[in-house]
Amino acid sequence: MSGLPRARVLVVEDRGSVRGVLSAILAPVHEVTACADGAVALALLAAREFDAVITDVRLPGMSGLELLRAVRRHAPRARVLVMTAWANARDAAAALALGAREYLAKPVDADDLLLAVARAVDPLAGAEGDAPEAAAGQPSGSGSGPGDAEVEAALRRAEASREAASRRWLAALLRTCGGDLAAAAARAGLNPAALQRLLDRYAAPGEAP
Amino acid sequence: MTASPPTGAALPRRFSTRRRLVLAFSGVVGAMLLVFGLQALALRRIDRSVDAMEDGDEQMQLALQLGAAIHEQYGLQGQYVLDGGAELTGYEAARARAASLLDRLEARTHTPQVVAALGAIRVASAELDRVFREQVAPAARGVAPVAALAHDRSHPLVTGIQRSIDDTLAQLQGAIAASRGELEDLERALLRGLAVVLAVTAALLAAAMLYLSRSVARPLAVLTRGAAVLGSGDLGARIAIDTPDEFGALAAELNAMALRLREHQARLVESEKLAGLGRVAAGIAHEINNPLQVMLGYLSLNRDHLDRGLAGQLAAVEEETLRCKQIVDGMLALSRPEVVLARQRVDLRVLCEDVAERLLPQARPAAVRLAVSGAAEALADGVRLRQAVFNLVRNAIEAAGYEGEVDVRVGASELWSEISVADTGPGIPPELRGRLFEPLFTTKDGGTGLGLSVSRAIVRAHGGDILARNGDGVGAVFVLRLPRREAGATA
């Protein structure tokens, strides 16, 4: 492992089976801790440092967005990735506006999850300056908020910018490793086949769903 | 489908109810005027007859007075003889009165017999006066018996005059009787005419009422009943008035309105159904996407560690897992496609070429020939519209089959920007025509049954529509159309 140090990742997901699969995907590459709700997550965050927090939106008690807000306040160095089973433009826009690094709609492919975490914790990404909140619309604090179309448009811009950022990050990764796919894969915490799939996908953007 | 409803206003219509009303009323008024004119004419004739009778009466009075005056004149001649020629003033006055009466009578009469009789009277009267002055008066002043004799001798003149007067009276009486007879005839004729006029007027009025009832009251009743039926919610009802007048026009407008309402209602029901489906989808998305996450997560995690046979099998599982996600996404997209439109000017030709290029990997293995032609622009949500066009073209490629053709044409009419996608496949079976756009309806093995319904929901959210029909000869044609009006509004 010549690449990144294992990142410390906290998975917050109430459903055991989902928690299990996320841990299984991340554990070979990162140091994974998993818990079922926001209160435990905050306790864990208070006890030690994490590089990334992956949280579901719908959680018992504190919601994923509330957890996100708390993490931004109390553990600002942790990057937060928000996942949800019901891809919802308003939630996504809110999450990105609150400072989430990614908004992921379930089901997420293992390759994509690993890429998202790698991008979130890799200083390369910071150098690229691809903070998604720059692209996401800032929902106003008032109750009514922006119109649905506005939210949707903001989310689309954010998605497009994430795609572009992923492409740039992968390019930067390859450059950094001198074009060595195996080295790049190792650095990103991916296996070479997975990295090749991602490169294929982002070189030629996929068709509309 | 939104076949534009046939509106009555489009048809040329003669507005003849007003003319009909005017015709009926002027018919009645005209008949009345004619009747009154005839009555006035008859009354004038009666008046003339009455005048003639009065005139005859007056003439008879004059004739009687004339007789009396002649007799008085002769009597005064006798008196003169008896008095021995005392004075002539009384006689002169009587003679002058008789002459004046004779003049007046002559001036008024026009009957030849009476004129002749009056002439005879005038001659006899002059003779009577001449005899008196030349023979009786000189004798009276001398020899009385001679005078008396001479006076007696002129008596036959008086008798002759009296006879002439009697003739005149008889003539006048005859004329009066004739006038009276005529008057009675006229009165009878007038009464008969009146009866006929009354009958004809009544018949005319009845005819006018019948006419108006047929041409106004009856269609009004039909309209009222029809409007009540439409009002009760039966929008399929049709008001059956085809006459080329105001009622026909109104009925056509009401029918067109009902048709539009029905279409609108159908759309509302459909969008409500879709929204309901969307709400259900939103509810189950959470429950389905989590299991899908577990499945996809493990499948994708292990795909690089499997032998080839197992990898192939699990790739199929992965593919179906993703299809499940697409179904849920599609159902969510149906729930509220209209709130997510981010419109911008879209070059439809470029969009279609882009879609065709992306679908080449699917077209090539089946040797399907893809052609894009024409040009048009639209103000639309490019991403969403692309999704709809993508679905149509992909369906067409699948329908076209091996070595088939797909023809994508872009064009614009006055109202719409259109993309038509024609294939050389088997076409749309008639029994499926009504269900094509139904959510979750599919005839394809790998279909979600959401492509067309999502596409149409997207296009309808733009104010457009997707219409499906069979091509001329072979295949199916799907026409996606977007209103041009909105494109122009924000130029």
In short:
The complex is a heterodimer of chains A (209) and B (491). Chain A is an alpha/beta fold.
Write structural notes for this entry.
The complex is a heterodimer of chains A (209) and B (491). Chain A is of the alpha/beta class and 209 residues long. Chain A contains nine helices and five strands, in the order E-H-E-H-E-H-E-H-E-H-H-H-H-H. The radius of gyration of chain A is 17 Å and the shape is globular. Residues 127-145 and 205-209 of chain A have low confidence and may be disordered. With 491 residues, chain B is α+β, with helices and mostly antiparallel strands. Chain B is 69% helix and 9% strand. Chain B contains eleven helices and seven strands. In chain B, helix 1 (17-83) runs antiparallel to helix 2, helix 3 (112-141) packs antiparallel against helix 4 and helix 8 (348-363) crosses helix 9. Chain B is rod-shaped, with a radius of gyration of 58 Å. Residues 1-12 and 487-491 of chain B have low confidence and may be disordered. Chain A binds chain B through residues 15, 17-18, 20-22, 24-25, 58, 85-87, 89, 105-111, 113, 147-149, 152-153, 156, 191, 193-194, 207-209, and chain B through 282, 285-298, 300-301, 304, 321-322, 325-326, 329, 332, 336, 339-342, 358, 383, 386-387, 390.
Number of strands of chain B: 7
The chain-level structural class of chain B is alpha+beta
H/I helix tally of chain B: 11
Largest interface: A-B, 33 and 34 residues
- In N-to-C order, the SSE pattern of chain B is HHHHHHHEHEEHEEHEEH
Counting DSSP H or I runs of 4 or more residues, the number of helices of chain A is: 9
Spatial ordering of strands, largest sheet of chain A = 2-1-3-4-5
Q: How big is the Rg of chain A?
A: 17 Å
Largest sheet of chain A: 5 strands, parallel
Protein traits:
heterodimer, A: 209 residues, 9 helices, 5 strands, 52% helix, globular, disordered C terminus, B: 491 residues, alpha+beta, five-stranded mixed beta sheet, two-stranded antiparallel sheet, rod-shaped
